[in-house]
Structure to design on (107 residues):
C-alpha cells in the first residue's frame, strides 16, 4: 500500500527558500554568460531575487518555479548568438520582472 505524504507548511517554506536561493545563484552564472552586455541588468535581477520572501502559498511557489524556467530560457539564449537571441533574452528578463511583480501580489 502506498502512502502519500502531504507537505507541511514548514516543508513548503523550505522548498520555496531553496528555489529562491537556486534562482539567485543561477543568475550569477548568467552574468558570466551575458558578459558586459547584460551584467548590469542581471545584477539588478539577482538583487531582487536574493531578497524575495519565502512563502508556503502554492501560487507563490509556482511563480518561483516559473522564474526558474525563464532563467533557463535566458541561459539557452545566451549560449546562442545573434540579434534574435538577444531579443529573446530581453523578453525573458521582462517576463521574470513581471512574474516577480505578480508574485508580490500573491503574498
Amino acid at each position: 500500500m502506498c502512502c502519500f505524504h502531504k507537505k507541511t507548511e514548514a516543508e513548503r517554506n523550505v522548498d520555496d527558500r531553496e528555489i529562491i536561493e537556486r534562482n539567485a545563484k543561477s543568475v550569477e552564472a548568467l552574468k558570466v554568460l551575458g558578459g558586459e552586455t547584460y551584467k548590469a541588468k542581471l545584477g539588478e535581477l539577482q538583487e531582487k531575487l536574493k531578497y524575495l520572501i519565502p512563502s508556503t502559498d502554492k501560487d507563490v511557489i509556482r511563480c518561483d518555479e516559473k522564474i526558474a524556467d525563464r532563467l533557463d530560457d535566458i541561459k539557452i539564449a545566451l549560449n546562442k548568438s545573434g540579434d534574435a537571441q538577444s531579443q529573446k533574452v530581453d523578453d525573458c528578463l521582462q517576463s521574470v520582472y513581471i512574474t516577480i511583480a505578480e508574485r508580490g501580489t500573491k503574498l
